[in-house]
Predict the 3D structure of the following.
Amino acid sequence: MQRWQLRFKNILGKQAPWMTVVFAALVTFSVYTCMYGYRKAFTAAGYLDQSFFGVDYKIWLVTSQVIGYMLSKFYGIRFIAEQIGNNRALLILKLISFGWLALLGFALV
């Protein structure tokens, strides 16, 4: 572990358990909020008179996003937890960047 990680771990370890929970909740909320701007972009567009099998195209997009989001939660929690601690932050940034590039590809298509 790096020096700052040990220092942070010592500081957090001395706090009450509920403080750790509050800190984890704030960090999780912050990461989710940052990612929300990326994943919500397609809902701002209009899809007039576009449907697939008689269902509005935007409904398909939102439904597929929710299903994908649910599946990514089930798999992602396990995947991230199995990663080595030192590489976890970099991996999360790479995954967010990949998601951003996928949405950019969606916009270009």
Notes: DSSP finds four helices and two strands in the chain. The mean pLDDT is 77. The beta strands are 51-52, 55-56.
